[in-house]
Amino acid sequence: MMIEVTKRLIDNYRSNSYEYYPFGYVKRKTLSAKEQATILLYLKELTGLDEYFIIGTDENRGSEDIQISGGGTYVLNPGQGGTFENGQFIVEPEDWEYVENNSGLSQSNENPGSGFEIQVTFDRFKEIMDCVNNLIGRNSYFSWTMLSMYYYPNDMQDNPITEQQHQEFYEKDHVTGAFARYFCDSISLIVLCLPAFVIIDLLLKDKRCKMNTLIYPRTESSAKIIITRFVAVGCMTMLPIFILPVKSLLTLVLYCRNIGIPVNIFAFAAYIFAWIFPTVLFVMSVALFVTILTENYSAVLLAGLIWLFCRPSVDKLAGGNYGLFDLIIRHNTLKGYGRMIENTHTLILNRVLVSVIAILFVGFAIIIYDAKRKGGIEIEGRKSFNNHRRKHSHEL
Fold first, then answer.
1. Rounded to an integer, what distance in angstroms lies between the CA atom of residue 378 and that of residue 382?
2. Closest CA to 369 of 233, 206, 198
3. In angstroms, what CA-CA distances link 385 with 335, 366, 389, 395?
4. If both were cysteines, with which of 74, 165, 265, 325 could 96 make a disulfide (CB 3.0 to 4.6 Å apart)?
5. For strand 73-76 and strand 97-99, is the pairing parallel, antiparallel, or unpaired?
6. Taking a C-beta distance cutoff of 8 angstroms, is the pair 262, 256 a contact?
7. What is the bridge-based pairing of β-strands 378-379 and 382-383?
8. 65 DSSP β-pair partners
């Protein structure tokens, strides 16, 4: 693990591009010259190599080789190959150069820094990774939380899949299930905030256009008015979420049919409804309640606070580690079906609880709205709409 992590750090140092997860999703950061110099010192301590072998050369990094039996090697030198109009890189057989004895290649053709031994103890290695993490930012790839996920036995590892993972992917997930979970994970942070803006704008538009003077006196119940609007906004919000993965679904269906395995065409719809819809309901219901109560943009601030402080920690990226009060479900891998099934009861309780809380907020919003229609609530020292009495619609 120490060698693989150090190799990753060398690659990041060479490109000056470091991954970190400030908001639960990956971003890339470029370090300053001073910070790069600090990383170089750590790499020297870890590997015992000098700067030349750590930095390498463009020629060495640009070449590739394929070893074959008998010790020979096919080498692809920089500048070989071509590109189609669609951007796809293509290499013809004549672009490769055959070298009979791989052991006879000069040292200059090898990738500097590719072979080394760790020169520090494990405790010192952890200390260096903590320092590197502090340089890059919160929850970088080199934080101990991320290293534990990627280099300890779990589904976030890049190692070849096991027989069990292969069986789960094709026979239980039917391919589309794994991609549906990954899609829901990718869009989860968006639905934790944006649906609030739709309902807020709709309600405050009534105030700007002075529509409440027409709506308040009507005989329709407050519950009917609020629920109708809430359902309309909910459908409008969910519609693009259901449409977005259609192209991916069609591609996966064709792939499964070509290789002759069963496919679940409803996987995306099922996961979106179970994982995303309760979150959308919650965010919208909170915004609905606060906007009706205050009649201003306070709900925008609250939506931002929910987005900042209600995101699960990065140690839940691999999925299966569900909390009862998590507003969004993380599963940032195509693997992990078995771990999800093991924790299905917690997942179901979580989604039901979030949905129930959302319904309660809608109920509170109806009560507040009805009281305002009757003129029974004071906002900012004045009564709301001064005791409007409902009239029959034919009297308006």
1. 5
2. 206
3. 56, 16, 10, 19
4. 74
5. antiparallel
6. yes
7. antiparallel
8. 75
Residues in the chain: 396
List b or e across 287-308, with b for residues whose CB sees 16 or more CB atoms inside 10 angstroms. bbbbbbbebeeebbebbeebbe
Report in angstroms the alpha-carbon separations of 101 from 64, 75, 96, 104, 278. 16, 12, 15, 5, 62
Q: What is the pLDDT of residues 287-317, one digit of tens each?
A: 999 999 998 999 999 999 998 888 877 777 7
C-alpha distances (whole Å) from 13 to each of 9, 62, 69, 184 are 6, 16, 34, 32
30 and 17 in contact (C-beta within 8 Å)? yes
Q: What's the CA gap between 357 and 351, in Å, rounded?
A: 10
Q: Amino acid identity of 234?
A: G
The answer to whether 218 touches 287, Cβ cutoff 8 Å, is no
Contact yes or no for 22/94 (Cβ under 8 A): no
18-59 pLDDT, tens digit per residue, is 988 877 667 888 999 999 999 999 998 888 888 888 886 444
